[in-house]
Design goal:
Length: about 950
């Protein structure tokens, strides 16, 4: 047989070698192909992940521009549209994908009218608007608005000024999320209102807080917010700018970005696809393996909104080929023919082992780094972390981190081996500790709030979490215990609860708690068919204390009043401070209305005792209005309103009394509101005038003086007596201006009569409590006397008994200053108050005026007659003169003359007369004498 034939018939060994070589070559080819495919996949994923990272960073940089605008408004305030545009225009030019910036301010429904009026001064026709189906229309009624104040770019966007950002649900949700989290918040894709196109657009909102308010909680941030800044982004341009032209030109690449669930068209922010790359390689034409499409999907947070990016393409997208596989195939076949099977096999095994070793090494290194990282994280944690044994019953501590030592004061070696709950001390029976012990015994997770004690014995509160640790799926061998010190949080919560329900100055219930108590009382009363009395109390002349002694003395006065109210009220009653010098007393379970009235009287009596402040005695009194459920109202607001009306009725009746609500008070309250408005303009319109009532010497019958009495000539209501508007003037603060007008007008009129030859008449003027408390009273009197030319001895100032008893020391000092300028002084309405004779002798007064309530029944009531006689005797013993008011009959005059009363005035001689009629009356008297 020739050698050629022998070649054609290979030996079994050669054939076996060749077959094995082919097999090994095929295996090596497949492995190489897979490695190339994996490399392409890895390259694809790395490139895609870099796009995701670039996109996250780019969005963050874009939001930073809004943060710059936010910082401008937060630090400078409302800068004006021009400055706002100047600041933002460079940002818009540098970042064209930002369609605009805007600044919005919160406006409440109550502020809306005033805000729109102020804006119309610069923007005629301005109203807060909203976008609806009909376009831009005035915003509807709601509790709060967020109108646009500034917008950039301004040109072409003027119509956005005033648009309410809260009308759009997505923008409203992003706004409240930003306020509560104190961080930028983004919307999903919304239709642009800047360019009115269908381009994918989203908003990013940043809150603006007041710098003087706390921001610790979402509620505090809601309370502190005053506005927001917003940026409008073109999502398509933003993503295209961040990814870059080079990335988006890669053949076969498809990129899509959604702001919510991937695949929903309405949430599509960006989509880009480049034509596929023509793969003309031999392997591609042979189609040994089907073309593989690679896809990477990632999610990331943009201002509280989840964005999804999806990048897909084939391996050929990133310059990929199978040349190496082809070479392995070709050279493998050649090498199989030329090399021994064992060497090829050894090389393949060596390569495989090397890959495994490298993989194991990488995995071990990664595991080691992860363990070190976890250890450092535990050591650096600000919260206490313990690791305990899972063996009961004590679950001994095996490890504590440094934070545990810092918080508790125990060193690590002091606690290792101790029971996990040793920080409870002897307080083991608390519910939280028992719950944790049960969880450890059952090998489950748990959480509880527990009282713990530090090494020095101080109490602190911990929020404790326990979780079992199991290795390789076995039962738990350890527990991880994490402790969060919430002592300050609980203390702060307690403070907030107290501040929410109690008045900080007096410590009694505030309006919030009052409303709750009244609501509960009304519910119980409705169930048991009982009454509830709501008493509204207002301190009389409290402003005098604040004005004369300062707010610190006023605060002390209020605290004393609150303490007395609590002591005088029953255990079932509620005492609350409504505001300022107003208090509310709630009397539940009132079966007998008379009993409630007696309680109110007892409370008023308890308040009337003198209060020493800065060495002076003040005699408090109050006016009280009472409304009764269900007669006067069936809810909190109605009862309080009616009690307030009744309180004002009590003030009108002379103060220091109480009144039950009557339906007619509604009409009186409306009239009172009208009078208050008209009274503020009465002086300007010269509607006030003075009437004069003569004062007659009892012995000679001559007119020796006149009392000036104010009247109000209302253009619609006619002549209004002082009883209907003087107290209103005192409450509104108008009494100062009115009193000064009365003083000057009376002095000028008396001087005119003197110059007209009608004799020297002493003019008597009533001083209100507020006038008497003014520090410039003496200089005001001196100025009036100097301007009119009237002698000081011809002026008599009347001060009521209750006025001088409010602050006795101040009254003595002021009266002496007035006496030093030779002004006559008299105590008006003597006998109706609670004056002390020991004080009376210290007052440098000249006259006591007997109140007409005693004179009226003088001849029919022996008690009144005795009181008048006693006052006359007392005054003469103190070398004072006596004037009796309200003399209307000859019998009254005769009794007063018999008991040596010095002077009288009343309708028996003349009613109060206008100045011209009083002048004619004087001339007639002079003619009679002549």
């Amino acid at each position: 047989m020739s050698p050629l034939l022998r070649l054609r018939a290979p030996s079994p060994a050669a054939l076996a070698t060749f077959i094995i070589g082919l097999v090994l070559t095929a295996l090596l080819f497949g492995l190489t192909y897979e490695l190339e495919t994996d490399k392409a996949d890895l390259d694809f994923r790395r490139r895609a992940e870099s796009y995701v990272s670039d996109l996250q960073q780019g969005v963050g940089d874009a939001v930073a521009s809004l943060q710059a605008v936010n910082q401008l408004v937060a630090s400078v305030g409302e800068v004006g549209q021009e400055n706002f545009s100047s600041f933002t225009d460079p940002l818009l030019k540098r970042q064209p994908y930002i369609q605009g910036f805007s600044y919005h301010r919160f406006i409440s429904a109550r502020e809306r009218t005033m805000f729109e009026a102020s804006m119309r001064r610069s923007r005629p026709g301005f109203v807060i608007r909203e976008f609806g189906d009909a376009g831009s229309v005035p915003a509807g009624a709601r509790n709060q608005y967020l109108p646009t104040i500034y917008v950039a770019p301004f040109a072409g966007n003027e119509y956005r000024i005033g648009n309410d950002a809260l009308h759009n649900p997505q923008r409203a949700a992003a706004t409240w999320r930003a306020i509560e989290q104190g961080a930028p918040s983004a919307t999903g894709i919304v239709q642009s209102i800047l360019n009115k196109t269908q381009l994918p657009t989203f908003f990013v909102v940043m809150p603006l807080y007041r710098s003087d308010m706390p921001l610790g909680t979402a509620q505090e941030r809601r309370a502190a917010v005053f506005g927001v800044t917003q940026a409008v982004f073109n999502a398509n341009d933003l993503v295209a700018k961040i990814l870059g032209r080079e990335a988006l030109s890669i053949p076969g690449l498809e990129v899509s970005v959604h702001t919510a669930v991937a695949g929903e068209a309405e949430h599509l922010a960006f989509h880009h696809q480049v034509g596929t790359l023509n793969d003309d390689t031999v392997l591609s034409k042979l189609r040994l393996f089907g073309a593989q499409t690679l896809t990477v999907s990632e999610s990331f947070d943009v201002g509280g909104t989840i964005w999804n990016i999806r990048i897909s393409g084939t391996p050929a997208t990133f310059t990929y080929s199978h040349r190496a596989s082809l070479l392995v195939l070709v050279f493998g076949l050649l090498f199989s023919l030329a090399a021994a099977l064992n060497r090829q096999s050894a090389a393949a095994r060596a390569m495989h082992i090397e890959q495994l070793v490298e993989q194991r090494t990488v995995e071990l290194g990664r595991a080691s780094r992860d363990l070190q990282l976890r250890q450092r994280a535990i050591e650096a944690s600000a919260n206490a972390i313990l690791i305990t044994s899972a063996a009961g019953p004590h679950f001994a501590i095996e490890y504590v981190n440094p934070a545990f030592t810092r918080i508790t004061g125990y060193q690590s070696d002091e606690v290792i081996g101790k029971p996990f709950d040793f920080l409870c001390g002897t307080d083991h029976d608390q519910a939280g500790a028992m719950e944790l012990r049960a969880a450890l015994g059952a090998g489950t997770e748990s959480q509880a709030i527990v009282r713990h004690y530090r090494k020095d014995g101080t109490l602190f509160w911990n929020n404790v979490y326990v979780a079992p640790v199991a290795l390789a799926g076995r039962v738990a061998t350890h527990f991880v215990v994490t402790q969060y010190d919430i002592t300050e949080t609980r203390r702060y919560q307690a403070e907030l609860e107290f501040q929410a329900n109690y008045d900080l100055l007096t410590g009694i219930a505030n309006r919030n708690l009052l409303r709750d108590r009244v609501t509960q009382a009304l519910t119980m009363a409705a169930r048991h068919d009982e009454h509830v009395c709501v008493a509204f109390m207002d301190l009389d002349r409290f402003k005098f204390i604040n004005d004369s002694l300062g707010h610190r003395a006023g605060d002390l006065f209020l605290k004393t009043i609150a303490h007395r109210l609590k002591r005088a009220a029953r255990d079932t009653d509620t005492v609350a401070r409504y505001g300022g010098d107003e208090f509310v007393l709630v009397l539940p379970e009132a079966e007998d209305i008379a009993e409630s009235a007696r309680v109110v009287q007892r409370v008023m009596q308890a308040l009337s005792r003198p209060i020493p402040i800065n060495g002076k005695d003040f005699f408090p009194s109050c006016s009280v209005g009472i409304a009764v459920y269900p007669t006067d109202g069936e809810d909190f607001e109605t009862l309080l309103t009616h009690a307030d009306m009744a309180m004002y009725s009590a003030k009108e009746k002379g103060r220091n009394t109480f009144q039950f609500y009557a339906p007619t008070m509604n009409e009186r309250a409306a009239k009172r509101l009208r009078l208050e408005g008209d009274l503020r303009r009465a002086l300007e319109r010269r509607e006030l005038l003075l009437h004069y009532q003569p004062q007659v010497d009892v012995i000679t019958g001559r007119i020796v003086g006149a009392e000036a009495l104010i009247r109000w000539q209302h253009p619609e209501l006619g002549l209004i007596p002082p009883s209907e508007f003087v107290s209103l003037a005192e409450e509104t603060g108008l009494i100062g201006a009115i009193g000064d007008w009365v003083l000057r007008t009376s002095c000028t009129q008396a001087r005119h009569w003197e110059q007209a030859g009608l004799g020297k008449l002493r003019i008597a003027i009533n001083l209100s409590a507020r006038q008497f408390s003014q520090p410039n009273l003496v200089s005001m009197v001196e100025s009036a006397l100097a301007d009119s030319g009237l002698s000081a001895s011809d002026l008599e100032l009347e001060i009521t008994e209750s006025t001088v008893m409010v602050d006795v020391q101040h009254a003595i000092r002021t009266l002496h200053e007035l006496k030093n300028i030779d002004v006559h002084l008299s105590i008006d309405d003597f006998g109706t108050g609670f004056s002390s004779l020991s004080y009376l002798k210290q007052f440098p007064i000249d006259v006591l005026k007997v109140d007409q309530s005693f004179v009226r029944d003088l001849t029919t009531d022996p008690d009144n007659a005795m009181i008048v006689m006693s006052v006359i005797s007392l005054a003469h013993n103190l070398r004072l003169k006596v004037i009796a008011e309200g003399v209307e009959t000859a019998e009254q005059l005769g009794y007063l003359r018999d008991n040596k009363c010095d002077q009288v005035q009343g309708y028996y001689f003349s009613k109060p007369l206008p100045a011209d009629k009083f002048e004619r009356f004087l001339k007639q008297e002079l003619g009679t004498e002549a």
